[in-house]
Amino acid sequence: MPRGRVVLLNGPSSSGKSAIGRAMLPLLPDPWFLVPVDGISGMRSTQYTRARDEAEVREILRRTRRGYHRVVAALVSTGNDVIMDYPLSEPWRLDDLLDVLDGYDVTLVDVRCSAGELDRRERARGDRPVGLAASQTQVFSHEDNDLVVDTTHRSAADCARDVVDRLDGIGGPKAFERLRAGRMPAE
């Protein structure tokens, strides 16, 4: 069975990942799936924060995100192409994805945006805590990518076109392969 491809749109909250992913879909050959982490999180009951301490909430969120990684892996393992809308805001997320998506064609796209514009977008949205994007300082800590787009002054449609136009021209090894090769061996 052919394996699908993954485009991982990584960036802080409000950087434009979701809008770029939606704008990519009509530009790509069918079928591609946009699978945002917020979609998986939105399927979880909303009662998870009631009467729970912070450590328990963190564990629930970690399990949700690990499950998200495996949902994407299941889709690509059966030949589907997937766009992930997902911030690599905690080091374990990238480590887990490097394991779960080992052997798959992953294109890592860093979605950047100025701090001032992120703050403006968060305030305009009203559905995110102000300062969330600024708190996600680790999204680019891996210091590697296959493509970079900046939404500060460019539309999601322009960035989507840029990603789609450059997607097939990216040679290997790609960022995930380089990051995997650079990891410390397990003892």
- Number of spatially distinct domains: 1
Question: How are strands sequenced across the largest beta sheet?
Answer: 2-3-1-4-5
Distance between the termini: 34 Å
Helical run tally: 8
Quick gist of this model?
The protein is an alpha/beta fold. It is 43% helix and 15% strand. The protein has helices at residues 17-24, 37-41, 54-77, 91-100, 115-125, 132-135, 156-167, 175-181, and strands at 5-10, 32-36, 81-85, 105-112, 147-150.
Question: Care to describe what's here?
Answer:
The protein is α/β, with parallel strands linked by helices and 187 residues long. It has a single domain, classed as P-loop containing nucleotide triphosphate hydrolases (Rossmann fold). It is built from 8 helices and 5 strands. It has helices spanning 17-24, 37-41, 54-77, 91-100, 115-125, 132-135, 156-167, 175-181, and strands spanning 5-10, 32-36, 81-85, 105-112, 147-150. Strands 2-3-1-4-5 form a 5-stranded parallel beta sheet, sandwiched between helices. Helix 1 packs across helix 7 (156-167). The longest helix is centred in the middle third of the chain and has 24 residues, at 54-77. It is globular and about 45 Å long. 31% of the residues are buried. The model has no long low-confidence stretch (mean pLDDT 88).
